Amino acid sequence: MIRRHMLQAAGMNTGIPRWNGRIRTAISVSGAIALLAVIMLGSRLMGSEGLAVSLEERNMAPSPAHLFGTDWLGRDMLSRTVKGLALSIQVGLLGAACSTLIAAVMGLAAATLGRAADRCISWLIDVSLSVPHLVMLILIAFVCGGGMKGVAIGIMLTHWPSLARVVRAEALQLMSADFVLVSRKLGRSRMWIASRHLAPHIGPQLLVGFLMLFPHAVLHEAAITFLGLGMSPHQPAIGIILSESMRYLSTGMWWLAVFPGAGLLLAVWAFDRIGGHLRRLTDPGSVRL
Amino acid sequence: MTLLEVKDLSISFLHYAKGSRRDKTNVVDGLDLEVHEGEIVAVVGASGSGKSLLAHAVMGILPKNVLVSGDVSYKGERLDAARLKRYRGTEIALVPQSVAFLDPLMKVGEQLHAPADGREQAAERRTLFQKLKLSRQTEKLFPFQLSGGMARKVLFSTAAVARTRLIIADEPTPGMHESDVREALARFKSLAEKGCGVLLITHDIEAALRIADRIAVFYAGTAVEIARAEDFSGSGEQLRHPYTKALWRALPQNGFEPLKGAGQASGPAVELGCPFGSCCGSATGRCAEGKPEPRELRGGWVRCVHAS
Amino acid sequence: MLLEANHVGWRYDKGDWLFRNVDLTVRAGEVVGLTGPSGSGKTTLGRLLAGYMQPAEGTVSVQGRSPGGNAHDPVQMVFQHPERAVNPRWRLEKTVKEGFVPEPGLLEALGIRPAWLSRYPSELSGGELQRCCIARALGPETRFIVADEMTTMLDAVTQAQIWHAMLDIVRERQIGLLVISHDRPLVSRICDRSIPFGE
């Protein structure tokens, strides 16, 4: 009968708990940045000798010389995993950043440019959301001629709608807020209000939106390359590595899939956590723990 | 019989000061209050003086970034989480401030139906709806479809069933028109006559005086005075605390006298001395020495060293 | 100088009329009360007069209002809930100075302490915020103020303090004041005349 989250009994606690949301966010942010730095720097420093075919070192299980083992062509799986992750993260970053930008423009346009624009954009958002992400992604990647470019464009064009909807709702609410109306009556221009009143409220939303989109984009990049629609087999994208290793799994070469898969999982999870923490911190509706 | 007893209740909020460091701000400080059977106790005071937090503390619905100390007991038993769960919605009912406390995605009728409700309560509620001139159709509406007046009636009907022993009403009348206020207050009065205890939280002294037996006056997070309703008369000579007197004399119908200074102290509660000291006309050196302890006076109760 | 409503009516889209044919005049330096039951459209009428909305029929006229709405409006409004009328992410100083830079004397007359200006809205009480909102509305170009249940949420002491300060300033500067309130004793105490609405 009364909203459930308000019903949680506060309990009788005294003293200020030391562990709090801001500390947790700081830890998750530094952890994810360290991971990102290791992957990016690692792929730079490693050079490409690990990717070279060396037939005498084929199918080796993990060992001190090859920590993640080698594949059926003798390529070092550690180098391939790191390079593959770096590539996926780059595509993911690009895709998520452009998606966020599109979402910001679309959301703000819908909220500020009048009813016709709002209807158009809302319709576009609804249509995009009603088609499964992956199907759209594959279609767009195909039309753009596949490859890294196709995948990146596909991700950009498919991930913005949900965030655009959030931005639109937030902006609409702000536009009718009393303090914005008062600002108009005090003679402030629309541009002034947009930059001083709207931007500071929507900026944090966009940052959180970007951080939540990013792991999505990486996963979708991996998925589409796994399906063989993305890049050429020579590029060590994580999806390609995983799909190739499928064939060898039955022969007991578990390391071909486990390490790259775990790496992907770790990267995605780390960024998802930052997004979640930041969202809780910036959301005025949630309690500041 | 004492229904609700609040002893030395303190509530403070946690907020971020700088980086990850957090500070406490006391909002309610050393509060004592009792509600007996068949009695209406009004809590009046400025908005932000901690009145609503008292209601939320009793109901156990404070937000999580809040620290609580002190004792809340119901019928002589400490109201802990388990007891709260048993009594809330059955014997203890909250009439919340607004429909924002209802689930926006659930029809009104379903929300009114508490898990512990039997056929008896359902029938009772239906008669109540008729009495309040709410159509059966109302039960099928979502909270956003209710008009202001309907929303108040619906919120009221959540509390007004026979098994309810204690009602906590949080600002049930703000911005309402004269006739609606009268009607709402009359409903509380009739519940109290049936033996129900009512804690009426409001900033409208005038409304409180019409039905309450005792009035607790809040200032800076604590009750500075508990007075009988009849003490509020004339130019307030019967009142005990200087803030209560100022409040009474500031009413538009009683002189509309402003108090010098900026009114209620804000921010962290004044740690030393009487919280009202900086605005009080009769403050002396003794007032700055420590917080005045509550003492009984002329059938009421006051926190002021000068009151006599 | 006049703030005038001529045969003003209002309704949502094509719904029922909330009110029609309302005529109302506020002269410079005059304090006028507007009382009526909740839901009668007092607030809507106030918003029409302050130019926050356009009437569905009739006209609202005041000297000096710019048609494009890009200049400081001669009619300013003070709302019931001050916490919604200030940007929660701004320190009060920025809010108070949004329209003009008030003299220290004005802030003092309204009982605004300098220390408040460096705080955020969540750190001030409703009464303190409302004083800041009033200061913001009292720009040099302000000729009329519409006060919509301005002190309904405040305690009697703060209410009396705010109105006394407000009335002094309004008298001195010959500002016309429309007091929208359900509180009859308050209206009869402070207003030169009062208009019953929607009864």
Question: If you had to describe this structure to a student in words, what would you say it looks like?
Answer:
The complex is a heterotrimer of chains A (289), B (308) and C (199). Chain A has 289 residues and is an all-alpha fold. Chain A has a single domain, classed as MetI-like fold (Orthogonal Bundle). Chain A is 71% helix and 0% strand. Chain A contains eleven helices and no strands. Chain A has helices at residues 4-7, 21-45, 77-112, 115-130, 133-143, 147-158, 160-175, 178-185, 190-226, 238-249, 255-282. In chain B, 25% of the residues lie in helices and 27% in strands. Chain B contains eight helices and twelve strands. Chain B has helices at residues 51-59, 81-87, 108-112, 119-131, 148-159, 178-193, 205-211, 242-249, and strands spanning 2-18, 21-36, 40-45, 66-74, 77-78, 92-95, 166-170, 197-202, 214-219, 222-228, 295-297, 300-302. Chain C has 199 residues and is an alpha/beta fold. In chain C, 28% of the residues lie in helices and 24% in strands. Chain C contains six helices and eight strands, in the order βββαββαααβαβαβ. Chain C has a five-stranded parallel sheet, with helices on both faces. Chain C has a three-stranded antiparallel sheet with strand order 2-1-4, covered by helices on one side. Chain C is globular. The A-B interface holds A 1-4, 6-16, 20, 22-23, 26, 287-289 and B 14-16, 19-20, 22, 24, 57, 60-69, 81, 84, 89, 94, 96, 101-103, 111-114, 158.
